[in-house]
Amino acid sequence: MIDQAENLRKIIHNNNQLNHETPKIRSARVITITSGKGGVGKSNVAVNLAVQLRKLGKRVVIIDADFGLANIEVILGIVPKYTFSDVMNGEKIITEIMTEGPMNIKFISGGSGVQDLIRLNEKQLSYFIKNLYLLDKMTDIILIDTGAGLTDAVLSFSRAADEIVLVTTPEPTSITDAYALVKTLSTQKRESLPNIKLLVNRVEDEEEGREIYFKLKQVSKRFLDVEIEELGYIPYDKALVKSVKLQEPVSLSFPKSEASKAFENISSRIINIDAANRGGLGFTSFVKRLMNLFNS
Ligand SMILES: Nc1ncnc2c1ncn2[C@@H]1O[C@H](COP(=O)(O)OP(=O)(O)O)[C@@H](O)[C@H]1O
Ligand SMILES: [Mg+2]
Fold first, then answer.
1. Quick one: which of 1, 53, 135, 202 has the fewest CB in 10 Å?
2. Is residue 211 part of a domain?
3. What's the N-to-C CA distance of the chain in angstroms?
4. Residues at Cβ < 5 Å from ligand 2 ion
5. 130, 161, 178, 184, 221 from 134: Cα distances, Å
6. What is the pTM of this model?
7. Would strands 141-148 and 228-235 be described as parallel, antiparallel, or unpaired?
8. Which regions in the chain score pLDDT beneath 70?
9. Helix (H, G, I), strand (E, B) or coil at 195
10. 23 alpha carbon to ligand 2 midpoint, in Å?
11. Tally of structural domains, the chain
12. How far is the CA of 237 from the centre of ligand 1 (A)?
C-alpha cells in the first residue's frame, strides 16, 4: 500500500496548483474561540461545537492555541506527538501532525506558538503555506481555542480572526473582561474588524444569558461602535462537570443533557449563519494576517 502521507508529501512538493498565490481553492471557515477571562469554558465550547458540527456532517479541526496548557488534549483524552512547529521546520506535513479524536475530529497542537512564524526563511514559509492550503482544502471548519486575557498572543489571534466566538459567564468580572477585549479590538480599522458573536456560558436560564447579551451589545454599540451578534447560551450543567472528569466532551458522554442540547442548537446556528454569509476566508489567510500583525 502506498503510504498516504508520502503521497500527500509529493502533492505538496510538486503540485503547483498549491502555489501560494492560487486564490481559487475553497477555504475552511476559521472560528476563533476567545474570552477576556480564563476558566469561562472556551475549551469545552471548542470540543463540544466540534462534536456537534461533526454530527451535522462537517469536517472539523481543532487547533489548540492556548500555548503551554494542554487544554483540549485533556478534555479529549488524547496525546498529540507533533505540533505546528514540526510543519514549520519542514519535518512533517500537516496531516502527520493531526491527532484523531472522537468522531473523526482532528486535533492540532499549536506548539511553541506564533513566534516561530516570524523566524521562518522564505523556503520554509512557502512550505508552511502550502501545508495550510492543504488543511483549508480538507476541512470545513477550523476551531481555534485560544488562551484568555489581553495578552499579545490572544489579541493577535483575535485580530487576525474572521469570526470570533467570545465566551463569557454571568460573573461580572468575566463580562467586564469580555468588554475590555472588544474595546481593544475596536481600535482596529472597521473593515478588518472580526465578526464577534457572544456565547454566554454557565447561565441559570436563557433569560439571564439574553440580558447579558443585550447589555454587552448596547455598551459596545454606544461606546465603541462595534456590533456584537448573539450566538447563544449554555446552561450551568453538572453533566458537563462530570464529563470533564471523564475526559470526554459532554456532547458524547451525556448527549441528552441540557448543555449538549444547547451546543447542538448553537452549532446549527453557526451553520445557518454561514449559509447567509460568504463563507470563510480560510486558515491560510488567517495565518498571513497573523504574520502581518507580528511583523508590524
Ligand atoms: N456549562 C457549564 N456547566 C458547568 N460547568 C462548566 C460549564 N462550562 C465550564 N464549566 C466548568 O468550568 C471549567 C473550565 O472550563 P474550560 O472549558 O476549561 O474553560 P477555559 O478553556 O475557558 O479555561 C470546566 O472544567 C468545568 O468544570
Ligand atoms: Mg481552555
1. 1
2. yes
3. 47
4. 42-43, 71
5. 6, 19, 34, 33, 38
6. 0.89
7. unpaired
8. 1-25, 67-70, 112-115, 274-280, 294-296
9. strand
10. 33
11. 1
12. 10
